[in-house]
Specification:
The complex is a heterodimer of chains A (about 220) and B (about 500). Chain A is mainly α and about 220 residues long. Chain A contains eight helices and no strands. The longest helix of chain B has about 30 residues. Classes of the chains: A mainly alpha (about 220), B mainly alpha (about 500).
């Protein structure tokens, strides 16, 4: 793994660091509140992991713009793509190839198929080559989108069936991991609230929240 | 019409009833509502099982969204079977609960107890029925959070501490499971279990799938209380209110075992888990060590609930042993033991609840001579204990026999011998209590004790009687387990999901 790749995956390094920090706090801490905080850090790292998965460099929020959208079409594509980060809205047949893969996504792909060395090596090259292009492509796509925004609404009704050879491509971030994490955050809050409530009761009964002191009190009793 | 909506009603009914109970707030009314809901849920799961037997697996698409996009509920032999005993024991324990919790939980908290109990049941049933992996996590957390709260209701000050310890380990387990789900999603781009399995198949065994499988297995092992990840269990079971222990001990760990079976046989494949990875040997070693360590620990306990809790850790070992054999006999033995042990352990904890009510103590020495003053309760212990040992004509015998034959089929003679030896340990700890009950001079507490109230004895005897019934008549236990095991293995063998 080259340095560029290692740095390119910086989100994952942060995730691992946070995860281990939280886990270490849970294991080592005698103070119940600190343990719960450790648990929170541990859970938060997983939220970050999911959100990282969904992020596509240069991608926008998945909102269909300009009212031309064939909604169902977009959904199908997102599912069929092996890594469903890439939602493409074609107004008509493509001139612009769906080439503007981002580096982050390639990294994801590589994570998924780590053992296929030869395959992933070529992908890395492609990816490295494309990082430079990505910016331009996105800009280009953005311009086309802008153009479409002005015109598509007007022409969509008449021109689409026979339509001009014109392609609109947008890159969307995958919204699903973020949505999943909303649920997980709620679960995390519930867990924390319950744990804190229990700790309040423990403190009422024992007068301390240090585990070793509680154990001694229990032994003495 | 209503027939089609049964899968969702099974979840929605208790889920909606729980907040309703909090709003009602009246103790008696709450009890009535929760009892009705629990028995309705039991009827629904019966109907679902009949439906599966008659017409094959039932699929329910949530909100009409077709399956890989929307959330799907799947009822097949295995899930219907597990849901049947989860809801059945839930309903019976709830029937049994009022007299027991009267003494153990402050009256003002009873409506909350009923609400939380239903939530716990919802979570466990949801884990069984859902076909969506993220849904499993959500339901796992619903049932876990409810069970932490239920455990903390115990009378002693150690109850909240036990609940916090369980919460910490349980949350780590659930979060591990979540990490695994994330990695699988990253590989396959889907959360539907059948869909994941189909997309996973070409590159099963690459590093991401290995890591995902490892995280999910360890996470579930914590929830199953597999030795050596069982440390939360003895305290949680000991200090929780008796009714709570009866329900959780009977169902919660089994549902995690169920989730594990699905993970190995339906999402990944047994050949991946047991041939590519040496999971069968690892499971076998952990199970056997766990069986011996936990059974030995049970022999030396002075608290009867703790004794049964350690025995539970040992019994989980038998289930995993069956699963690790990965053949029809072994798997059906594991599944049948889930059911039989749920009945036996649920019944025994209900017996203990009767003792706790009348003796006001859980110490075995306080139970001396209680056989004279509480004959019915003591006799129930004897019958349940025989089931735990695996004496013929009890349910425990059926599953242990299946397990033994499966071990013989695999030529695992050493495992068979060790299983028989470990049953001897069960004889020791069950007999120790029987001896205390019948052959000792009554203790001060036992002398003044009365027989447990009929409202507790009848549900206890229904469960204990069921262990005898399913010891002789195995159509709805071992036979169903075999059907479930066969369908799991056929699906796994053909490699492609049977849809």
């Amino acid at each position: 793994m080259s340095l560029d790749q290692a740095l390119g995956l910086y989100n994952y390094w942060i995730v691992i660091f946070l995860m281990m920090t939280g886990f270490y706090i849970v294991i080592s801490s005698q103070n119940l509140i600190k343990t719960i905080i450790g648990l929170n850090i541990f859970q938060t790292s997983v939220f970050l992991l999911y959100i990282t998965m969904g992020k596509v460099a240069g991608g926008t929020a998945p909102i269909i713009q300009g009212g031309h959208g064939d909604h169902g079409h977009g959904h199908d594509q997102s599912h069929d793509a092996n890594h469903s980060h890439h939602v493409v809205d074609h107004v008509d047949s493509g001139q612009l190839q769906t080439g503007s893969e981002s580096f982050g996504e390639k990294a994801n792909a590589e994570l998924g198929m780590g053992h296929e060395h030869d395959h992933s090596a070529t992908m890395q090259e492609v990816a490295a080559g494309q990082t430079a292009e990505t910016g331009e492509l996105i800009q280009e796509a953005g311009e086309v989108v802008g153009y479409a925004d002005n015109d598509a609404a007007a022409v969509a009704g008449e021109l689409l069936p026979t339509g001009p050879v014109e392609t609109i491509e947008k890159i969307y971030s995958n919204p699903l991991p973020s949505v999943l994490m909303l649920t997980a955050i709620v679960v995390g809050i519930a867990t924390t609230a319950l744990a804190l409530a229990l700790i309040v009761r423990i403190r009422e009964e024992y007068g301390t929240i240090e585990e070793d002191e509680i154990l001694e009190l229990d032994k003495a009793a | 019409m209503i027939q089609e909506q049964l899968p969702i009603l099974l979840i929605i009914l208790p889920l909606l009833a729980a907040p309703l109970l909090v709003l009602i707030g009246n103790r008696r009314l709450c009890y009535l509502v929760s009892l009705i809901v629990a028995w309705l849920v039991f009827l629904i799961s019966n109907a679902l099982l009949v439906g599966v037997i008659q017409t094959g697996p039932i699929r329910y698409e949530m909100g009409g969204w077709p399956s890989p996009y929307g959330i799907e509920y799947v009822v097949d032999y295995l899930s219907a079977f597990v849901m049947l005993f989860v809801s059945g024991l839930g309903a019976i324990v709830l029937t049994y609960a009022p007299a027991s919790i009267q003494q153990e939980i402050p009256l003002s908290k009873h409506y909350l107890f009923f609400a939380t109990f239903l939530l716990c049941m919802t979570g466990l049933l949801g884990m069984c029925i859902t076909g969506d992996l993220f849904n499993v996590f959500v339901f796992l957390e619903i049932s876990s959070l409810a069970s932490y709260a239920l455990i903390s209701l115990g009378k002693t000050r150690r109850a909240p501490l036990a609940a916090v310890h369980y919460l910490i380990l349980g949350t780590i387990g659930a979060t591990f499971f979540l990490i695994g789900i994330g990695l699988l999603y990253q590989m396959t781009g889907t959360l539907n279990m059948a869909d994941i399995a189909a997309r996973l198949e070409p590159n099963i065994g690459n590093r991401t799938s290995l890591v995902a499988f490892a995280f999910m297995t360890v996470g579930l092992c914590i929830k199953m209380a597999v030795f050596p990840l069982h440390t939360w269990l003895p305290n949680a079971y000991t200090y929780a209110p008796s009714a709570v222990t009866s329900f959780i001990a009977a169902t919660a760990t089994k549902v995690s075992v169920y989730a594990f079976i699905r993970l190995v046989f339906r999402i990944f494949s047994p050949s991946f888990a047991f041939e590519t990875l040496p999971l069968d040997q690892a499971l076998m070693i952990f199970s056997l060590v766990g069986i011996f360590v936990a059974s030995t620990a049970a022999v030396f306990q002075s608290n009867i609930k703790r004794l049964l809790a350690f025995s539970s850790v040992a019994q989980i070992g038998y289930m995993l042993l069956g699963i690790s054999m990965a053949n029809v006999n072994g798997l059906s033995a594991g599944i049948a033991h889930m059911f039989n042990h749920a009945l036996i352990k649920g019944g025994l904890f209900m017996v203990v609840g009767c003792f706790a009510l009348r003796l006001g103590s859980l110490k075995i020495e306080d139970m001396k001579g209680a056989g004279k003053t509480m004959p019915w309760t003591s006799f129930a212990w004897v019958v349940g204990g025989l089931g735990l040992i695996g004496v013929p004509l009890t349910a425990g015998f059926v599953s242990k026999w299946l397990l033994l034959t499966a071990a013989m089929d695999n030529n695992w003679f050493h495992v068979a011998v060790l299983m028989l030896l470990s049953s001897l340990l069960a004889v020791v700890y069950v007999w120790r209590v029987v001896e205390t009950l019948y052959f000792e001079e009554p203790s001060a507490k036992a002398r003044i004790a009365k027989e447990a109230p009929v409202s507790m004895l009848i549900p206890t005897y229904i469960v204990i009687g069921a262990t005898l019934l399913f010891g002789c008549w195995t159509v709805y236990s071992a036979e169903l387990a075999r059907l479930a095991a066969e369908s799991l293995l056929i699906a796994a063998d053909s490699g492609v999901m049977t849809r």
